Amino acid sequence: MIKTILAADIGGTNSRFAHFQTDQNGTLTLVGAKRLPTKGAASFPQLLEQLRLSDFTLPVEQIDIAIIAIAGPVEQGIFCAPPYISWALDLSSKENKKALRRGCLINDFVAQAYACRSPVGKSARLILAGKVVDDGVIGVLGAGTALGMASLVPVAGHGLLALPSEGGHAYFPFVAPREFAFQEFYREKSGRNHITGNLVVSGRGLSYLHWFLSGEELEPREVTARFTPESETLAWFARFYGRVCRDYALKMLALGGLYITGGVAASNPEILTHENFRAELLNSPTMNHLLVNIPVFLIDNQDSGLWGAAFYGQQILDQGLN
Question: If I label 241, which of 4, 134, 166, 210 is the partner at 20 to 30 A Cα–Cα?
Fold first, then answer.
């Protein structure tokens, strides 16, 4: 029997929706997708109404299950007040229960973690070779509007469990005098005292970094359009990205591999292929021997969060849960 899944990835900039089908053989198929601006809606019900009125291929009332991934901490699988979205999402509200008779809310990087075991994860681009430990923890992180993190942990007899993280809100580890000068520049220009990974390894981080290095105040896309092999902004950002990847790989002991996703790296893979990325990733006087064996992959499919949400929904349907 074919079942239908509504997968959604609600981010600070865009909200993506997808219609998936899963059959008795476990084949997951993407039927259609739709992107809507998150800020174009004053609430999640309004966003669903915009989806209903669009040319989306799946009427919301016909779904077997909806998996909504959102950029923020999720409480009890039904509520999230995301830090970079002006409205909260509560699946237990009367409006949402009427629109989605069977739904589940998960963190957006939990969806990215499950995506590692979906078709888009299996086709991920190898950035740095290593040796995957079959029962090792998988680390997942990526930058877009902010810096997301999660992990995929093997559970004996129960497959894989995705664990969320809000590590992007931790302070970014600056080192050396010129980096400290950038930190003070960021504080002065942004008015923020706490310079976190979300602010540094993200689209806005690119803008502030280029502003500091060049004196030009540009949008992130304007900055990346100027990337060349000699770009100082690219060199700095690659080093910063390598640093957060190294620290997270060590914290999670990601022997199952490190998967990088998110719009910044997917649209600009030269960040990960830059020598500064590799050098900083392996820069550990005590754990270099471990880091050098952790393979690094890039999931450059912009719909990876949707595939991960659908993969999770498929597991729920298969197990008869929720």
Answer: 134
Are both 281 and 143 inside the same structural domain? yes
Question: For residue 140, what pLDDT band results from cuts at 50, 70 and 90?
Answer: very high
User: Residues 50-57: what's their mean pLDDT?
Assistant: 91
Task: Please indicate, yes or no, whether residues 225 and 90 belong to a single structural domain of this protein.
Answer: no
Say if residue 311 is in the same domain as residue 189: no
Q: Is residue 120 part of a domain?
A: no
- pLDDT tens digits, one per residue of 230-267: 999 999 999 999 999 999 999 999 999 999 998 899 99
Return the number of other C-beta atoms located less than 10 Å from residue 290's C-beta: 15
Number of domains comprising the chain: 2
Strand order of the sheet with strand 79-80? 74-75, 79-80, 89-90
Separation between Cα atoms, residue 296 and residue 257, nearest integer Å: 6
Write out pLDDT tens, residues 269-278. 999 999 999 9
Residues 62-78 pLDDT 10s = 889 999 999 889 998 89
Residue 186 CA to residue 204 CA, distance in Å, equals 11
d(CA 107, CA 48): 18
Ramachandran category for residue 168: left, alpha or beta (phi over 0 → left; psi -120 to 50 → alpha): alpha
Which residue shows structure tokens 């999931």?
299
d(CA 79, CA 97): 12
